[in-house]
Amino acid sequence: MRLLFLAPVFLLAAAPAAAQYHDSRDDEIVRALPTPGEMADVSDMIGRVMSAMMDIEIGGVVEAIDPGARGPRDRTLRDMAGRDDPYFEDRMRRSVYGAVTDMGDIMTDITILTPRLRRSLEDLGRDVDDAVRDLPSRR
Predict the structure, then answer these.
(1) How many CB atoms lie within 10 A of CB 58?
(2) How buried is 20 (Cβ within 10 angstroms: 0-12 exposed, 13-18 middle, 19+ buried)?
(3) In the chain, domain spans
(4) Which long-range contacts (CB under 8 A, 24 or more apart) does 83-92 make?
(5) Residue 95, SS3?
(6) In what helix (H) or strand (E) does residue 124 lie, and over which residues does it extend?
(7) Cα 114 to Cα 125: distance, rounded to the nearest angstrom
(8) CA-to-CA distance for 19 and 49, rounded, in angstroms?
(9) Alpha helices in 20-58 (DSSP H)
């Protein structure tokens, strides 16, 4: 339990060390990622697109696939998808918003990991250069 109270102290102590690694290239990468507000806009847009897609009439397609299929020719994707599930609309909406929320969390993780990943790739590049430079010549 004491460690929980000491966590802020450790974070404050680590801040100067983390600051020395700041690189403006990281800022450029982070600026290119969508903001939480942009992710919310995407969520609303995807929800509207999904709802509009549910109104597409598919009766003719169903008949083309299965000529013996019964049902009105003007049935929609919504009619088919929700016919046995009274909660279909709510589940679809929650699924869309959940997926976009997950993407927002991923963007946050990318923002945090970008400096480390860039430094790791630079270190790898230097290590490869060093290894190649130390190879014996083929002469």
Answers:
(1) 19
(2) exposed
(3) 35-106
(4) 92/50, 92/54
(5) helix
(6) helix 88-133
(7) 16
(8) 43
(9) 24-32, 36-54
Which residues contact residue 58 at a Cβ distance below 8 angstroms, ignoring those fewer than 6 apart? 75, 76, 77, 80
Q: Is 76 in contact with 56 (CB distance < 8 Å)?
A: yes
Tokens 């460690």, residue?
3
Identity of the residue numbered 28: E
Q: How far is residue 120's CA from residue 130's CA, in Å, rounded to a whole number?
A: 15
Nearest CA among 128, 99, 113 for reference residue 30: 113
Q: Please write the tens of the pLDDT for every residue from 111-139.
A: 888 888 888 999 999 999 988 887 777 65
The string of pLDDT tens digits covering residues 29-39 is 778 888 777 88
